[in-house]
Amino acid sequence: MSYFDAASGAPLHPVARQALQASLDEGWADPGRLYREGRRARMLLDAAREAAADAVGCRPDELVFTTSGTRALYDGIAGALAGRRRAGRHLVVSAVEHSAVLHSAAAHERAGGTVTEVPVDRTGAVGPDAYAAALRDDTALACLQSANHEVGTEQPVAEVAEACRAAGVPLLVDAAQSLAWGPVDGDWSLLGASAHKWGGPAGVGFLVVRKGVRFAPQGPVDERESGRSAGFENIPAIVAAAAALRAVRAEAVAEAVRLRGLTDLIRARVPRLVPDVEVVGAPERRLPHLVTFSCLYVDGESLLHELDRAGFSVSSGSSCTSSTLTPSHVLKAMGVVSEGNVRVSLPPGTGVADVERFLDVLPGAVAGVREKLGAPVAPDAPGTLAELTVDAVGERCPRPVIELAKALPRVRVGGEVTVLSDDEVAAVDIPAWCWTRKQEYVGPAERGHGVVAYVVRRLV
Amino acid sequence: MSYFDAASGAPLHPVARQALQASLDEGWADPGRLYREGRRARMLLDAAREAAADAVGCRPDELVFTTSGTRALYDGIAGALAGRRRAGRHLVVSAVEHSAVLHSAAAHERAGGTVTEVPVDRTGAVGPDAYAAALRDDTALACLQSANHEVGTEQPVAEVAEACRAAGVPLLVDAAQSLAWGPVDGDWSLLGASAHKWGGPAGVGFLVVRKGVRFAPQGPVDERESGRSAGFENIPAIVAAAAALRAVRAEAVAEAVRLRGLTDLIRARVPRLVPDVEVVGAPERRLPHLVTFSCLYVDGESLLHELDRAGFSVSSGSSCTSSTLTPSHVLKAMGVVSEGNVRVSLPPGTGVADVERFLDVLPGAVAGVREKLGAPVAPDAPGTLAELTVDAVGERCPRPVIELAKALPRVRVGGEVTVLSDDEVAAVDIPAWCWTRKQEYVGPAERGHGVVAYVVRRLV
């Protein structure tokens, strides 16, 4: 079995396991108590905070431990927005933030605030100028991830932080995906992170609030973690989280070089091994261990099942793998193909043999799914029809794109195919398919009852 | 060393440790993923939920895992209040709830809601009739602990639940202190609990919402735990929490009988061994393992230090042991002495020899602290003065009571002593001292600048 989904969560690092074991005996008591067991717990907590702060590059009293990365983001955003209530109620986020940030933004809007989503380019990156332009006089807070969780693209945090400083707006960085690789550059104001992303246990997040940043914790609070993270501290897990971060950092530079070699291999080889594939995300400014590609005419769930059967655990931003029918908001914001999406994120220690085996297995897995779905196998010569309408109503991703791909060869160059579809994913994948295949996307037209007519003109 | 503070948190149960170890290997992955590691994690999570629900006495789909007992209460109260928004914005709580409930109530008031605190009697119990009388047409939610965390008094949950049903108001029960001993009786609607109270790891709470209870999670939410508890599930800890609960329940009946014998011993012996002590909390309807007493003329912090040096870890509801200068809201609501307060809560397995050793050590520890503070040692014959004023302004607990106790013998029976004090604790402890010593508390009078004159008439 090869686990290639480190971006979801890494198995417990051996150093974290040792630290956890040791502190189960020493760190179970209430660190707020005066007796021996409480004092021992407090010492462990203080030491873990120093180690964590050292890895983040902040002061220990700027860092509190939360119960998850999600909680760090929820509480960090709510506290920073409330602390800057007088400045206004405007929040800036990128369009490709983690759902924890976008859910916080949605909650802020429900409570009467306003939100601007800064768009990204086709690699998933925001432009520093576009980000700066979104800052307003009433902007209370800006949020930007250090690197994207689905496609690995690194964001220009230092430049955006500079623009935020100039505008007097605090910047909160979601560093969940990158903190294992190094501290976040730039003059940011708040930071959130999640320990199970770097081989710490689940149940531990970091929230960093730089001195001088206005911050007002929201909801009920207690006296724990400077009043910024309520509930009895899980000290054994906190100690393990800090130990794991220190351990992965010690190997980070060498491991980044090694894993970047492996993801470069995947980036280069997959388009040669599998037809109709789009590798997505920034080719250079990206996380070393993560690579994402989308396979046309494939549904993500079937492909993940095939890969799982072959011993590979990967994840997907395709709609077909989640309980909702909407495609990944990240791929949608990037305007890239979302169907048949595969995210490979290599845990530290992954060997080249594992990756070679994955590359051996992938083409057959994709071909098998395509065959079952009756996907087109080779481009035909131009047909003779001037136009053609395909009814794909009631069909789900990737069927509408498969039908389009099968119909287009039947029209002559310059002719049009209209695809009728009520699948929300088609709105992302049909334009993205056209971009990939160098065909012209003419546009959508509403037909009522949720049905949209997508018009495509054959160019080649 | 004897750890007698199980009510704060218990060391990890051996069964929990085994379960944690095993599930570190099997339960670290994202249970929302389709691949093998995700499916294994999901199976562990489902099994833990069934075990937990079985112990609580609810359906598995009524129970979600939270990141702490505090979080279960925060989110349970907020969600239930929002779900019943149309009924009104009135919240009923007892005056002796855990601070997590009272902090939630305070947040609700800040947001424009109203709160009624139901008072308790001298044993710390609410009266079912008084509780029922607090329910109004606009009451959205009522909260009651199953048993008090500071004095062990069991609350009449079943009777209060019945009154709430009759009034159409959901009752949320904070079962943190009692769930180890058995399920909560009665027809309650919501329940919160905390695993580290029963030997599970920190970082796991339960929130139970009965089917049919209106519930609207507040703030940002994600898809985890039915949308009721955000963030990546800490499955190894959850599995350990459920295993620990099952393990302590298997021994609960026998262990309750045994520990009740030991706490009965403390209840009976302490007043004979130590002069000027009040044992507080209900003598019969109480948790089996918990006993609380207050020692006059002693500050809690010094006493805890003495006991810690002698090898005993206990906690205190005295103001002197916390960073604030207000006494425990529980002891205050009960109207009992708060100074020199000691809570003994025995973990399962505590032996009679440990308790005997504690009873050997306690009298000397109390006497030592009293001697340092110059506390009165024996009652004097009635003096001759008609009245006497003692200036204790600037003195902190337990000084004002010590000064009162030293002054009272100097007046004749029927005479009065006035104590001037700016210590908030005196407002609790002087009346409580009078009650304990069968003297008459005439009342307080404001003197300005935070100074209050407490008037006491000598009766005996």
From TrEMBL, chains A, B:
Reactions this protein catalyses: (sulfur carrier)-H + L-cysteine = (sulfur carrier)-SH + L-alanine
Keywords: Iron, Iron-sulfur, Metal-binding, Pyridoxal phosphate, Transferase
Top-rank lineage group of the source organism: Bacteria
Pfam families: Aminotran_5 (PF00266), TusA (PF01206)
UniProt xrefs under Gene3D superfamilies: Aspartate Aminotransferase, domain 1 (3.90.1150.10), TusA-like domain (3.30.110.40), Type I PLP-dependent aspartate aminotransferase-like (Major domain) (3.40.640.10)
Domain UPF0033: 390-414
GO MF annotation list: cysteine desulfurase activity; iron-sulfur cluster binding; metal ion binding
Family: Belongs to the class-V pyridoxal-phosphate-dependent aminotransferase family. NifS/IscS subfamily.
Protein name: Cysteine desulfurase
